[in-house]
Specification:
Two copies of one chain form a homodimer.
Chain A: H1 3-15, E1 29-33, E2 36-39, E3 44-47, H2 60-70, H3 82-92, E4 101-105, H4 108-123, E5 127-131, H5 140-144, E6 159-162, H6 174-194, E7 199-205, H7 220-230, E8 234-238, E9 263-266, E10 277-281, H8 283-293, H9 303-318, H10 321-342, E11 346-352, E12 355-360, H11 371-384, E13 386-387, E14 389-391, E15 397-400, H12 408-423
Parallel strand pairs in A: 3-13, 5-6, 5-7, 7-8, 8-9
Antiparallel strand pairs in A: 1-2, 2-3, 4-10, 9-10, 11-12, 12-15, 14-15
Helix pairs in contact in A: 2-9, 3-9, 6-7, 10-12, 11-12
């Protein structure tokens, strides 16, 4: 039995057989640095998947900040501490008015839970609208709202799921899509109202990552939010994937849609892997909810998390990673368009900044999803030393979302690998 | 304006006025070491409150483990990694059969959420029984089940709250209390059944910390669990407070009641402040749930958390902290009994190991709760440089729960401080 087989057997025995693992042959990692991870034999893999280590695996400034603060003080927010207040100010300063306050949590799940509590408290309603192919967390309430994979919890009667426009798949005129899909939001609101359910929130990812990174339909989010607000609900924007300069166009995905949310939820990249997350909203909302709910989070907002979060903001600024995301993202996009011209399996190129996808389809008249090919491709890429994944309703859209320190050289490695892998399909 | 006033004003503006703070004059901390924390003026405070830094503030072995692993690799469990499997094996080995598997999370809230999902999946029921003065987390579902402070979420129709026996306050014969209070559990089961709600779980803290650390009533938990299991439910034991050698009698609080839970939830002390938590149960439960739920937790079970968790287990073993908890806890208890003989405001001494309480009552015939005095006392103690808090239905029970490296010398500092503070009331 190989060393990996033995580790896998031990893992199955103590953590279960269904704890998710990537690839047909799971990857056994021991080290990470920048955009590379290394397996136990010392082989390097270009990481084009992980957004959590957003400023690069084991970035020395983040590591040093964590190590220094862990040695100094790690305690909850029932005592005063400078770092967490400094971080809260620095973080909220990156948002548009009137978003000026933050509540800290440990994970995207905790952030979306808190956002739903806050939305229901502020509106007095229970009704939630989500997309019909999404995921916002693993708590019971969020598992019930999950629409992109089955969960034991039934989809709740207080919720409705709406389709998200994907111009690559819906061939009606682009200029009509915003109104058509806003109509689905209106239908969802009316359906809830017909059941006596008052609106609480529209909860969406500003980048529609699980939905497969469809090209933005101008005006859709704005119209959807107007309909929800008119019905008394609020707009919760999940920035767990799109946030922290990922899109290259702005620090936050929602800034690209010119529609400021009432509540923003943060997670994954916030501490470069340190469990740090949060909810950004208006101070009057925090104060009203705080008075009623006595919200406290033991690990949320501890000074080590704050040190990690501050270091991430510093690196994004000092290494100009928003600019890098835009510039390298554009380089990747051009390369992907060249691959599209060469490989007929590619139907379209998606995404922006350092979050991009390729939709793979079969050569038939319906352009049916090339799901098996996408799976084979990510395994071929893994064997070539490049880590990617796939998303979308048919799991036929390649998901590429590297650390933000991805350079044009790294991009060229990815593009060359994809070219070979596509040719070998 | 003082430096602290300015920090407080900034905190209010960006984190809200109701984010909880201890003491009439909040404490501004900058450093921690062992059982001491230090304010910005360098003044030391004996920490008799915090169980999260269970092996001591900034324990060098935990700090070093975190720093080393953060510099090496921090990634999720979709790749194989040795450390998390090693930790899962080490952790589950401290539990009795048949508890042999673990799912990792980031907080006690996430653990109790996952435990409820698991219980409902395994039983096909929805019914939850909790104590009538408790708290298990800050998610929407757990906030609704909260009974020890108000939340905006109503107590749910699928739940019932039972009283927990407190022999110091219920003067009926001790030998009858287990049956009397098990009767409340039976009533709760029947009430749920009458409403057509099938049992899912009894969710209790094995030490009844929020309830005020009542002296254990032999047989109560065993009988309660039997009734719940007969009705098709499972027993979830919340070890977020009582676990990790806290009680001095066993690694886990539930081991003192000779009743092995179906599901155990872990949190606070698990990573000595690093956000690490988990759910321990049987591997067949994990596999069945995993197949249906596709549970994944981005930060849960990352190698830095595993390194922190392993270091905590190592220190507990190498520094013999279970033995220390028993031995020093006994020393404290004897000292508290002497204070009780001297100060009539003390009605009784509570707790065991390094988790102890003093119930303060007025001199009237009803021994009514000395709530205001308890509040004054913890503020006097803060000014003397000793950090404690209070719990219980009337907030009149002093809550003392120091890091496990608390020595008899530290205990004598606490006892001397309490003696003076009680005299000055």
């Amino acid at each position: 039995m190989s060393e990996d087989d033995d580790l896998l057997r031990r893992r199955f025995r103590v953590m279960g057989k269904h704890s998710p693992l990537f690839y047909d042959r799971p990857l056994h990692l021991v080290r990470g640095e920048g955009v590379f991870v290394y397996d136990q034999k010392g082989r390097a893999y270009l990481d084009v998947y992980n957004n959590v280590p957003c400023v690069g695996h084991c970035h020395p400034r983040v590591v040093e900040a964590i190590a220094r603060q862990a040695a100094r003080l790690n305690i909850h927010t029932r005592y005063l501490n400078d770092l967490i207040v400094d971080y809260a100010e620095r973080l909220t300063a990156t948002f548009d008015d009137p978003l000026d306050a933050v509540m800290f949590t440990c994970s995207g799940t905790e952030s979306n839970e808190l956002a739903l509590r806050l939305a229901r408290f502020l509106t007095g309603g229970q009704g939630i609208i989500v997309s019909d192919f999404t995921y916002h967390g693993n708590s019971e309430t969020l598992a019930a709202l999950t629409s992109c994979f089955p969960t034991p919890e039934p989809f709740p009667p207080y919720a409705r799921a709406i389709p998200i426009p994907d111009p690559a798949r819906d061939k009606r005129p682009l200029s009509e899509l915003a109104d058509i899909y806003a109509g689905h939001v209106r239908d969802a609101v009316r359906s809830l109202q017909a059941d006596g359910v008052k609106m609480a929130a529209l909860l969406i990812d500003s980048f529609f990552a699980n939905e497969g990174l469809p090209a933005p339909v101008p005006g859709f989010v704005k119209k959807a939010v107007e309909i929800v607000r008119e019905a008394g609900g609020v707009y919760i924007c999940d920035e767990v994937q799109a946030g922290f300069a990922r899109t290259g166009g702005a620090m936050w995905g929602h800034q690209l849609t010119k529609t400021t949310p009432d509540i923003v939820t943060l997670g994954k990249p916030m501490g470069n892997g340190h469990p740090l997350a949060g909810v950004v909203t208006r101070i009057d909302s925090v104060d009203a909810f705080g008075a009623a709910a006595n919200y406290f989070n033991t690990f949320g907002g501890n000074p080590v998390s704050a040190a990690a979060g501050l270091a991430v903001l510093d690196v994004i600024k000092d290494e100009r990673l928003l600019e890098n995301s835009r510039r390298v993202g554009e380089h990747v996009r051009q390369g992907l368009e060249r691959l599209k011209a060469k490989h007929s399996i590619i139907d379209n190129v998606r995404g922006r900044g350092l979050f991009f996808g390729l939709e793979l389809v079969k050569g038939d008249a319906q352009a049916s999803p090339a799901t098996a090919e996408a799976k084979r491709l990510i395994n071929i890429m893994r064997d070539k030393g490049v880590l990617i994944s796939r998303i979308g309703r048919h799991d036929n859209i390649l998901k590429m979302r590297p650390p933000l320190v991805f350079s044009t050289d790294h991009a060229d490695m990815l593009l060359a690998g994809l070219d070979e892998a596509l040719a070998s399909l």
